Request: fold
Amino acid sequence: MPPRASQPRAKLSGQGDSSVAIPLLGIVPAAPVHVSSDAFEGSLATLFSLVRDRRLDLLTVPLLPICEAYFQYLIASAGNSEPGYLDEAAVALSALAYLLERKAFLLLPVLEPEPEEYEEPAELPAASVAEFRLAIEVLEQWRADRESVFFRSADAGPDPYELPYELSNVSANDLALAFDRILSRAKPVTMPSLSRPRRSLADQMNVVLAEIGDEFRSLEDLMADKLTVTECVYWFLAILELVRLGRLRLRKVDEVIQVGRPPLPQARLWDKDSDVA
Amino acid sequence: MTVTDALYALLFVADAPLTVAELAAASGYDRPPVEAGLRELQAHLDSAGPVQLVQLAGGYQLATRPEYASMISRLLQPQRQRLSRSLMEVLAVVAYRQPVTTSEIETVRGVDCSYAIRGLLERRLIKEGGRRKTPGRPIEYVTTPEFLHQFKMNALSELPPRQDGSLTIEAGYNEGT
Reply:
């Protein structure tokens, strides 16, 4: 059956339209395969050139007849012993392989790139503080009204539930002067050590209580000269804490501050109910 | 001892607004009698005396009446902290658009607001409310219960309307936290 007019054809040059010039592919001419289709008519080398330069849509050119014509060319040239024949066939094969690869690539399904989804940026508020003008005026008025009422403050000062402690006739200044004299007699710290373990004030309070007997003793005599400045501070803080807790009492005799234990049982105002019981 | 007396005692020693839940937990009563007791105590204090029961920052607190303000001021001599115009503007933006980032505040005001934000943070009127899940994770600012207390409000829903009459508080903001 003769091919239809629109059916592509390919044939070897010299078998019919043999007058078509065959361009060179490089320095070696390609095999004389002539292609004839609705979109293209010419040699295989011309087709190769046009496709390579993207001047022809390869999808419109069927490659099957070209492959068949090339196959016939190989069969017809089976006994050809002319020099350059193999180069000519190889160039045509390369051109045909290139066309097949390009067409196969073009026939691959094309994945439509999905439109990238961008998160809608948060709408920035308009640059206008005027909309708050009325609110600011109201808020300022409310704040002024609020300042006319008073609440119980969270800052109640020193612990309001601290019980008053008894210092008898000893003032804080007397204690400070006594402590200053003690420090002036104390030995300097000879070997400061960063790794010295922390001392507990409670332990020091026990040491002080063990040292003080029932008799009142001079505060300065109590802290002997052998104590260092640091030890003097520990002793003094422990004595202050014991006085605060009511376990030691202070008195001043001839400008000398004495410390001693209060008489037992300790009668205090807030123990009256328990004494009665 | 009645519920009203118990609530009066608790509110008397409290130095911050007490919620109904806190009052119920401390007094040992359920919420309905506590709420009824608060109403009764408020009516009792409104009838006479220098003290009133006010609802502030999501709770109840005892306060003096305004007519005693002058003599109390003479006694306590409180240090009033004035809020400048810029601080008030930033505070308003945070109050209405919280949680809000620094860049959003600056977009509204059109000027750098870092100084004002720092001032409001130091006054404990605003605080950091977390970080926004956007590039850069900017800090979000929200108002504090101290803000409600300072401006005599019980909740953010009591904010005055803006110029356009709208009141928009971002959903999900846990009020008073």
User: Anything to note?
Assistant: The beta strands of chain A are 9-12, 24-25, 28-29, 33-36, 41-43, 217-218, 249-253, 256-260. The interface with chain B takes residues 122, 124-136, 138-140, 142-143, 145-154, 156 of chain A (CB under 8 Å).
